[in-house]
Amino acid sequence: MKTQLSKVLERLRASYWFVPSVLVVLAIALSYATVWIDRTWPVDAEGRRYWLYGGQAEGAREVLGTVATAMMTIASLTFSITIVALTLAAQQFGSRLLYNFMRDRANQFVLGIFIATFLYAILVLRMVQGGESDAFVPQLSVTVALVLTLLSVGALIYFIHHTAESIQADNVIEAVRRDLLDCAHALLPDGADGPRDAEWSEAESLWQRLREDSAAVAARGSGFLQAVDTQSLESLAAGKQAVFRLLKRPGDFVMTGCELLRVSPAALVDDAFAARLNRDFILGSRRTLIQDIELPFQQLVEIALRALSPGINDPHTAIRCIDRLGDMLGEVLRRGEPPVAARDTDGAIRLIFERVTFASILGTAFDEIRQQASPHPAVVARLLDTLRVLIEMAPTEAQRQAIALQARLAHLEAAEKAGTEAERALLEKRMRAIRALLAQGEGAERTVSATHADG
Asked: Where are the bilayer-spanning segments (predicted)?
């Protein structure tokens, strides 16, 4: 249920209609409330406050009509600016990053304020009455319309500034980093104890014993796996005394009819049970940040690859992406790998997930950049610097060796394409520092092993 709610909230956040719709509803309620106050407690000339509108009915109509016209014009201008900004962002950063711009609450609130002010002015305008006997000028309501207009002017100024800021490469990269931190906090519990080798061995050993008595459950739809309701699956497996082996992880593309998971014991699987299991796998037309830890890495990789393409040729942006990718990988090293199994209250394994290792995330982050950056010595030099820092942070030898492999491949590919001796020397200097660090770590491990042996 929680996962389904997260999916709904994510859809609402990425929509351009939800926040404006809420503000429109509030504007309607506000218009009726202020008009009711004006009718219930009318203010005469002697009791009127200086800040209340003091004109006649004709003046009130002109003010409200002007406000409504101006707000509709500004809303159209805002929409046009948004389209231009999205077009520029798609060209520079890739169309898949438009999803991040669509999730920007500031743009949604600004558009909503303009539409809400327009609707408020129209609703109050229809209540203004002239004449001698039944004249009614909603002074408070007109005053509120003027206040909303001032608020809209401030929102317009903020919107122009925010739009100019949001399409700058450094800010786009920083926004992706924040998304990764949110994912890490949700998917990588703080204090996770590094790699999941022991847990994975236990889960794999259990599944090898159960594999013969298992049945496959096929997907009944297609699309990207956006989230898995693990709580619902775990509860169902515990109630049936079963074990589910998930074969897809969030971010994978699922084809209709492919195996989603296997269930042991096999006797549980029938058409109704398969349909029930399918409901816990949320599919969609695009990847989302709900449970997909690798998506922010791939977004930064796409920015870096576009920056390195001949059409853009912006190695500085690629270097900024490498810096942030290194920082994000450091967060994974600090927190540890995602869980590979889920247990019931008695400690028995009920769900076995596809394993996401640090090495696989490292490959997602740097494989394509390493290949594309080989003709750019400065970019490869920064990549090697980043890998050296990650080796210093890595808590296990397996992680250090995975990082070292990336460094060796980057150095080899770039050295072959280096045009001058100076470029080759630059790369060799970075690589020597990595070799020295690895040798130092191996020496420390031998010392520790010898000490244990003597003991």
From this structure: 16-37, 63-88, 109-128, 140-160
Distance CA 7, CA 289 (A): 10
Cα distance between residue 358 and residue 337, in whole Å: 6
Sequence-ordered alpha helix ranges (H) in 289-343: 295-308, 315-335
Taking the C-alpha atoms of residue 209 and residue 206, their distance in angstroms, rounded to an integer, is 5
Listed in order, strand segments (DSSP E) in 185-318 are 215-218, 223-228, 243-246, 253-254, 259-264, 281-284
Instruction: Report the distance separating Cα 13 and Cα 2, nearest Å.
Output: 16
Query: In the chain, which stretches have pLDDT less than 50?
Result: 45, 446-455
Q: What is the 3-state secondary structure (H, E, C) of 219-235?
A: CCCCEEEEEECHHHHHH
At residue 33, the pLDDT reads 94
Report which secondary-structure segment, H or E, holds 204: helix 197-210
**Per-residue DSSP letter, 428:** H
pLDDT of residue 191: 56
Instruction: Name every residue whose Cβ is closer than 8 Å to that of residue 305 and which is 6 or more positions away in sequence.
Output: 368, 369, 372
| Closest to 44 (Cα-Cα) out of 137, 131, 132, 120 | 137
Angle at 163 between CA 162 and CA 166, to 5 degrees: 80
215-284 under CATH 3.90.1170.30, yes or no: yes
Joined together, the tokens standing for residue 239 give 């109630």
pLDDT digits (tens, 9 = 90+) for 384-438: 999 999 999 998 898 999 999 999 999 999 988 887 889 899 999 999 999 999 9
What is the Cα–Cα distance from 14 to 3, expressed in whole angstroms? Answer: 17
